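pinned: reference chain
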Amino acid sequence: MSSYLLRLIFAGIGLMAASGCGQKTLVAPASASSALVKVRFQTDWFPQPEHGGYYQALAKGYYAAEGLDVEILPGGPNAQVMSSVAVGRADLGMTNGDDVIVAVARGVPIKMVAAEMQRDAQGILFHAEHPIRSLQDLQGKTVMAGAGSTWIEVVRQKLGVKFNLIPLVGDLARFVNNPEFVQQCFVTNEPYFVGQRGVPVGALLIANDTYEPYRVMFAGQAFLALHPEVVAKFVRASLRGWIDYLTGDPAPANKLLAAKRSDLTPEFMAYSIKAMNDYQLVLGNAAKGERAGLLTAARLTKQIALLQEIGVLDKPVAVNEVATFEFIPAQP
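pinned: its structure tokens
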């Protein structure tokens, strides 16, 4: 996580606290006539298939069956997910597991409660005529990537790979027009849009045996202390939604997503779902003992040690400071 992002987190916490957003309004009945408990879930970006499991749980009544009235709050470039959850503007949120570890080390009162994805969807986008088969192939190249991204320091410090870095922008024109151009992407997203322009591309998942961050669901520590049963129900229903979305009929969630964003075509949503399955992002690799929602102390311990080794953490943190395992369903 970049220092700029962390400043945004703490600035957001200060502004929200000053405006009276406190923990006192964390959970309330959905209405006077309803027994459902209102829960606000903050996403990291605009509605998209990478949030499909939550929308599936909403559309198919899995949250309601647990007694929850879940409001999915859309994110965007200025979502400030962690600060929103930390001060109680949202009850739970989602983000990269690295970011939660770094934020906790700097005093942000949040904690992971389950994995959304067993590995992050960030990847390296390349032209098929100039393939990137491993991160070592970035040696000597120029890469457009997000400044401050943890994976960059891992590749440079742990793998000894040196490459030039230029700031990441949202426009794909530079990539499309330069056959040797390489950039950071989400494997569930940019490869589709470049392919639609007639450019043969490939994508390499950044996650590997050295660096394999989770994407996670997390909650504020105050919310966890006050409402553990609500967190358990939310996690259970969300994982049910994710499994159903990726292995069953995704139409209910896709209908909700399309109603919120007209640019989400059926073809793109099908591509994203296939990518999540092909890369084993959410359901995991059963051969490695992975499954939907699973967090392990061993992987988090390794991740914390790596972040400290490359100088990302200000101070050491323990696994039980960044995550709780009590809400992860047992192996079926």
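why pinned: The chain has two domains: 3-119+213-322, 122-205. The two ends are 35 Å apart (CA to CA).
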